[in-house]
Amino acid sequence: MTIQSKYIDLFEKMEQTIESRKSAGIYPAMGYTSNLDILCDFRIDVLNRLLETHMPDVDLNALQAVKFIKTVEDFISTVVHFCRNGIGGEVDIEDFAIIEDLFDTKPGIGGTSAQAAMALAAVGCPSVIHLTDDSREVCDILRSPYIHTVSPAGELIHTDQVKQRWEQEIHYIIQFKKGDVIRSRNQTIEIPASNRLIVTKVTVNEFVPFSQPYFDYIERHAKSISSNVLSSFNCIKDERVLRERLDAVKRHVRAYKKNNPAGVIFFEDAHYHSLDIRKLCIETLYPEVDIVCMNEEELALTLGMYNRPVDIGDILSCVEGVFFLKNLFNVKNGIIVHTKDYSMYAGDEPGADIESGLIYGNLMATAKAMYGSYGTREQISEVMKLPLSEKGLRHRERAIASPYAAKTAVVPTKYIDKPKYTIGLGDSFVGGVQICFM
Q: Is 402 in the same domain as 364?
């Protein structure tokens, strides 16, 4: 079967697959953070006016991202740095007043688990999520018959039944587009790739308060939890707090696996504010999980931390890098890498058709890129009409012809050159992958 034929076959079966697992009461569990995203209508002419007003004589190629935004000049410098390189990431801000009047905005949901749950709900697939920001604004966005959380009494409830316990957390999302041109006097720079910058003022997610009833529910009902998604430790800055959270997660996943040996522990990696925090998370969690998932920028950064060079434009270099990490940390099954051109799994047989998970993940991510919303079945049917990425197809052919073919799956994406939206694509991908474990 060609990869295009498999796309068609899986899309045609998606509704039936989800319905059969719903009727069996099988859910994925999605942890751990939520927050309110403020989605900015970022326009390049606004950035260019800011440059003219605040930094008229600056060398655009000299501007660098700051670690902590305190002034509008810090913000301009940081945005130009990310746009110039076409890269995504997160930066903290002292006060949102610095930027809150620069762009038109609308509210959205943030957090890997929350966005993955939204992506699944859009196709009628239920999940159980762990909340941190449980504000009314967040719970209203998450309100769906397919999204459950766990009450203090240990019962499944919907988010309209949640009573707020934690402080709200807000992230501003700056989405920039490939081909837009940054101008400053006689200088011009064309943005090479669409991506996003997340500007954060961390509150509750600096501590990631855990819900013990959520953990207890997942452990008690482990046989009904097909996959257990871990994510969102990247905003924690206090190593003591992080160690406490990681120790709790280790105890939890071991209890879950004891009660459901076939269940999948799935860790979605992230952009970290601290390399020390990243290192501690990697070295603690990778050996505990079945599958690690990340994008190509995170792959390169992680390999660089362990002095392992990688060429992210070369699929076999990426495959070799993935096996290096799997072996270094004894990841139980394998590692997924998701990009705009392809998604890839490399490792041992995970007990599911992982290629189907990559396809569902690709479809949900591309639908989010096309529409800015979490793709319905009708919207995904439009995604199906798109061509497969030519670069992704070449990567797939190289992988199939390589010595790694038996332990590697490379699936080209349905390709969009200039996505309208770049936020939540990886999180939507994570949601889609979970369908193959159900």
A: yes
Report pTM.
Answer: 0.91
Residue 412: pLDDT band with limits 50, 70, 90: very high
Considering the domain architecture, whether residues 318 and 196 belong to the same structural domain is answered as no
- 3-class DSSP assignment, residue 284: helix
From CA 301, how far away is CA 319, in angstroms rounded?
15
pLDDT digits (tens, 9 = 90+) for 320-342: 999 999 999 999 999 999 999 99
Q: Name 415's Cβ contacts closer than 8 Å, sequence gap at least 6.
A: 340, 341, 386, 387, 388, 389, 390, 392
CB atoms within 10 A of CB 322: 27
- DSSP labels for 71-91? SHHHHHHHHHHHHHHT--EEE
State the residue range of the domain holding 220.
3-34+111-166+204-437
CATH number of the domain that 363 lies in?
3.40.1190.20
| Helix, strand, coil percentages, rounded to 5, for the chain | 45, 20, 35
Q: For residue 201, what are the β-bridge partners?
A: 170
Mean pLDDT value of segment 4-12? 97
- The mean per-residue pLDDT over the stretch 43-61 comes to 93
